[in-house]
Amino acid sequence: MTSTARTIGFKPQERNIFFHLLTACNLSCRHCYINTTQHGTGMVSKQTMAAWLSLFYEPSKESNVIFLGGEPTLHPDLDHGIKTARKLGYHSITVDTNGYLHHDLLSKIGPDEAVLSFSLDGPSPEVNDPIRGKGVFTTCSENLKKAAKLGFKISVIYTVSRLNIDHLHKMPQLLAEWGVSRFFIQVIGLRGKSAGETGNELQLTPAEWLQTVPPIAAQAAKHGLEVVYPKVFLDPNEPFQCAGNVAENYFIFPNGRVYRCPLCEDYPLHALRIEENHLIKNVGITEEQLFTLSIPEGCVMNKLLQPGNLSYNTDGSPKHRISCCLLKQQIKG
Ligand code: SF4
Ligand code: SF4
Fold it and tell me: Best substitution site from 285, 302, 304, 327 to test ligand 2's pocket, by max atoms within 8 Å of Cβ?
């Protein structure tokens, strides 16, 4: 049986909360997207965590929360946040972790309470550790296997760059052996540290992405994994949609900034802010004005931040339109 990728369209009846509990981390990955200049070095308190979960929970929609950092397991009250989200009625709760699982998280929550999403950027210490740090592969993979044994649903995020694209093909079998159910192949972006001088060396060309990622995703699906990866290049007849206009995504930071588009996070363009546990719309120039612009290249923020993704025909029209970075392809085994 062959599996084909389908585009996961934006769902107006869904609300996704990307909750950055803190910006601190015990690692220092080469492509880290955390920007403390914009988002500070603070950490939400236990009370604020509960109040903001309640603020963003919308009972008439399928509300999903993803706890992020920095490293979210460094927060001593993450387990309380997970339990609060469950009580409120969140449809899905995910923790995106670097694999260190601080504060003994596995002993504080049950396997039905959250999905654990581990970041790994290589199938071995030789590939992963130069990107994520010495000893990270061993710690992350051991904790992943421990969590899988306990019955947690496990997802792995692999951020593809020049440094590890040649090793991506080794991941499907490894993840299947470890009991991983979902494989998210992420593309290196130009946010945070990647936006600095090393960004261009790490970034893939469109040809490298298209030749490598979809075939390996199909291979992973054959191993029984659910595979998700960004669409990046729209097919000629596919409509362009900006998630800022048609979907409900909120990227929340501990300093109270709330973005609707992750590509805007390196700038003070946030559409909303939280003050005294109330959500307030910002006035003046914000990301919302960018969402209304219509250009032949597709995503406006991509054109501003990653113009290297674009190429043009002799008549000046773009060869490919770039999709919203939140549009995903999915293949299920
Ligand atoms: S684990 Fe995440 S937050 Fe920590 S350094 Fe790496 S990319 Fe940054
Ligand atoms: S990535 Fe582009 S298309 Fe998607 S929300 Fe941001 S501006 Fe809109």
Answer: 302
